[in-house]
Write a structure and sequence with these properties.
alpha+beta; 3-stranded antiparallel sheet; 4 helices
């Protein structure tokens, strides 16, 4: 709620939110698309793994159910200051994610499986839409990466080949890496900055930093 309040003051055109609730962005007005995503633990009915928000209405883009079941994904087209934009909010499962029916899982299994399912769908989407295409959310790894499964990293590279990723490396003003990223085609990122995940008194307000990107389209 604290991060959402700060985002409202910034007056964004678009928000890509992971691990929120149905009403998380209600105070901003506008329009929201969301999806529950895969269930790696017990959740209340209002929880949504991925959400898209815009001042303008959304036209939802089809996501195959088998892809949605492997992670978190919601897609739609909206208008930003009169410009049509296609948006995809994703949450790639973290390296030890497991599904409700599993008592154990292999490290990186669901992370890799989601990327393998995402790649062909994303390729088809990129070929089909003529609008700028913005993908953002929880990629669940720092980029460039010094740690983690090599197959998962290759999966990232294959999946987002041809996209600009403006969130690589140490980001200002905190000079830290993030696991929340954007992949962009047809738009230019002019500025990237982080919102502190802690309150001024040190209390955590999220386990993720907020990421703000100014785009030119």
């Amino acid at each position: 709620a604290s991060l959402v309040s700060e985002m409202a003051q910034i007056k964004p055109d678009l928000i890509f939110l992971t691990e929120g609730h149905v009403a998380s962005l209600e105070s901003l007005g506008g329009n929201t698309l969301n999806h529950r995503g895969y269930r790696s633990d017990h959740k209340v009915d209002t929880e949504r793994l991925v959400s898209l928000w815009s001042l303008s209405p959304w036209v939802e883009l089809f996501v195959p159910p088998e892809l949605a079941r492997k992670g978190g994904i919601v897609a739609g087209e909206t208008l930003v200051r009169g410009q049509a934009v296609s948006c995809v909010c994703i949450c790639i499962p973290y390296h030890m994610a497991r599904l409700p029916h599993e008592s154990a899982t292999r490290p990186w299994q669901h992370h890799i499986e989601f990327l393998e399912a995402l790649r062909p769908w994303l390729k088809t989407l990129a070929e089909r839409v003529s609008t700028p295409l913005l993908i953002a959310g929880d990629f669940n790894r720092r980029l460039p990466s010094l740690w983690g499964n090599k197959s998962a990293l290759v999966g990232h590279q294959d999946c987002f080949a041809g996209f600009e990723i403006p969130t690589l490396g140490l980001l200002e003003p905190l000079k830290v890496q993030t696991i929340d990223h954007a992949a962009v085609r047809g738009a230019k990122a002019k500025r990237v900055r982080l919102l502190e995940r802690r309150e001024k008194d040190g209390r955590p307000r999220s386990d993720h930093h907020g990421v703000i990107i100014d785009f030119e389209m």
